[in-house]
């Protein structure tokens, strides 16, 4: 009887811990203990105990300066593992790998997380490109080619909070609607040195069956690659991403 009760309590504790983890994933960035407790329907002391366990397991972390909590490296590994099991991700990884071998260009793949775009795969070309970006790195929505594609090809309610965060007075003013319209019309976004000086980036969407950008493939180049060849590399990447979309049952939306 005691064993059954202990097992039931253990299952309940796991369920609550997963609920707290889900709250961390759904909130817009690092959050205070009170906000997490309220969203998890727990008292502050209860939420603190579960957060401590999640931190010990690497699933959460606490910022020493602010005391706020956010997802830890363990949660990121789980998310990336889940992505790697998606048919579209597997198809894309194979096709983009072939593209990199064909063109020599470096490509990063990204998905849209709760707080913004995040790099989920990095396929290095020849010669290799060295940047501060790695798998798991976040990207801005409004100042990266990758972010532009998600802005244009995901529902507005999914990006509204990100847009609001990046259009605060301290940021350079930007016409969000004009940017969204341009990228939807062109079907891609290209920037030069907007995020990292000297780096040219062109992002192309991969669509799901609802016509939403489920992943982006962003081809990168430095001065080692002639700018006059960028259009050819872009057009080939669009062709590859359209093939991935078709092969996985996705639909390119009509604009």
Helix content: 40-55%
CATH level-4 homologous superfamily of the largest domain: GAF domain
Query: Sheet with the most strands?
Result: 5 strands, antiparallel
Shape: globular
What name does CATH use for the topology of the largest domain? Beta-Lactamase
Radius of gyration: 20 Å
What is the number of helices? 9
The CATH first-level class of the largest domain comes to Alpha Beta
Protein name: IclR family transcriptional regulator
Domain HTH iclR-type: 11-73
Keywords: DNA-binding, Transcription, Transcription regulation
Domain IclR-ED: 74-250
Describe what you observe in this structure:
It is a single chain. The protein is α+β, with helices and mostly antiparallel strands. It has 2 domains: 2-72, Winged helix-like DNA-binding domain superfamily/Winged helix DNA-binding domain (Arc Repressor Mutant, subunit A, Orthogonal Bundle); 86-247, Beta-Lactamase. The protein contains 9 helices and 7 strands. It has helices spanning 2-26, 33-40, 44-56, 73-84, 87-103, 145-153, 156-166, 176-186, 230-247, and strands at 60-62, 69-71, 106-113, 116-123, 189-192, 200-207, 213-221. Strands 4-3-7-6-5 form a 5-stranded antiparallel β-sheet, sandwiched between helices. Strands 1-2 form a two-stranded antiparallel ribbon. Helix 1 (2-26) packs across helix 3 (44-56). The protein is globular, with a radius of gyration of 20 Å. The termini are far apart. Residues 74-250 form the IclR-ED domain. It holds the Pfam family IclR_C. Keywords: DNA-binding, Transcription, Transcription regulation.
């Amino acid at each position: 009887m005691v064993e059954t009760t202990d097992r039931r309590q253990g299952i309940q504790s796991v369920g609550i811990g997963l609920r707290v983890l889900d709250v961390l994933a759904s909130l817009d960035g690092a959050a205070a203990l009170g906000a997490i407790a309220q969203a998890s329907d727990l008292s502050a002391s209860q939420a603190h105990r579960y957060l401590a366990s999640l931190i010990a397991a690497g699933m959460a972390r606490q910022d020493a300066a602010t005391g706020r909590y956010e997802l830890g490296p363990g949660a990121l590994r789980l998310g990336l593992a889940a992505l790697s099991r998606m048919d579209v991700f597997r198809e894309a990884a194979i096709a983009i790998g072939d593209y990199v071998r064909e063109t020599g260009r470096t490509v990063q793949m990204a998905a849209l997380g709760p707080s913004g775009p995040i790099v989920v795969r990095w396929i290095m070309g020849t010669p290799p490109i060295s940047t501060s970006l790695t798998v798991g790195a976040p990207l801005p929505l409004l100042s990266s080619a990758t972010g532009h594609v998600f802005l244009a090809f995901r529902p507005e309610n999914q990006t509204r909070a990100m847009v609001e965060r990046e259009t605060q007075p301290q940021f350079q003013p930007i016409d969000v609607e004009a940017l969204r319209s341009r990228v939807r019309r062109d079907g891609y976004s290209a920037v030069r040195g907007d995020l990292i000086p000297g780096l040219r980036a062109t992002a192309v969407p991969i669509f799901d069956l609802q016509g939403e950008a489920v992943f982006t493939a962003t081809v990168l180049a430095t001065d080692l690659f002639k700018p006059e060849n960028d259009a050819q590399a872009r057009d080939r990447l669009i062709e590859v991403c359209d093939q991935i979309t078709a092969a996985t049952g996705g639909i390119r939306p009509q604009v």
